[in-house]
Amino acid sequence: MVSAVNTTGEHSDRGLRRAARDIITLTEPLFDALAELAEACRRDVDLTLPRPFDDEASWSAFAPAADHVLRTHVLATGVGAAVIGEESADGTASMAWWIRRDGHVSRKRHVMNPQSDSFYDVRHLRWFRVPMATGRPALFGPYVDSWGTDDITLTAAVALIVDDRRVGVVAADLDTRQYLDLAEAVLRETGVSALLDDEDRVVVSSDPSIDTGSRIASLGQAVTGRETIDELNWSLARLGGQSANRS
Q1: What does the alpha-carbon distance between residue 175 and residue 142 come to, in Å, rounded to a whole number?
Q2: Disulfide check for 240: which of 137, 177, 220, 224 has CB 3.0–4.6 Å away?
Q3: What pLDDT band is residue 168 in, cutting at 50, 70 and 90?
Q4: Superkingdom of this entry's organism (predicted)?
């Protein structure tokens, strides 16, 4: 579950706090679904196997939970898990993933063979390695999913924890356009300038002159207010006037 809003740094105001609550309202149901998906993975998949999802039975056991998320959460367009089994000799992950297209849910297979030129090594992708390192839920993107769909993607991810050990990640790709449109509406209603990711890059802005992906420090505007959203490691910013770093 996404935790409460936390005020940090600059002056906070009611607009920022309301925007943060609305972003939580928008995002929390998907993280709740991922928590349920993680529980289904622990319950139904043999995570002691070296590469659990090389086993067809693991796909079949996990499929109903994945299908349920995709059919009940309109923002989710893809969902699955990447797991490093307890006895994995080389530490590579196995992965099970499903996508929804035109109302139809189907499996999407990734190349998980390290000897292949198309090897999808999730260990180096932020949506996998950050939850594995921190144990905290997070949102990542927008980014180009160059090893998946080649689409602009937002990914929500939570660590898969077994006996206090992080063995993998459960994640969902979001309908990026729909999410950004909804988040932008929140910013416009509250007068907040931008939603920022954990690297202080703009996820979406209410100002059409500010592009997604821009670093807030490069905009030449002072940050007059900021509100963090715990667990997501994102924040909201109000901009105004010229930055002290610009002449």
Answers
A1: 11
A2: 224
A3: very high
A4: Bacteria
pLDDT band of 147, cuts 50, 70, 90: low
Terminal-to-terminal C-alpha distance of the chain: 43
For residue 128, the surrounding DSSP H or E stretch is: helix 126-134
Q: Is the bond leading into 142 cis (omega within 30 degrees of zero)? A: yes
Task: Set out the domains of the chain in order of their start, with CATH numbers.
Answer: 5-24+191-242 (no CATH), 27-177 (3.30.450.20)
Distance CA 37, CA 170 (A): 7
The 10s digit of each residue's pLDDT in 193-226 is 999 998 899 999 999 999 999 999 999 889 999 9
Give percent of the chain with pLDDT exceeding 70. 87
CA atoms within 13 Å, Cβ hemisphere of 152: 9
Torsion of CA 197, 109, 133, 86, to 10 degrees: 170
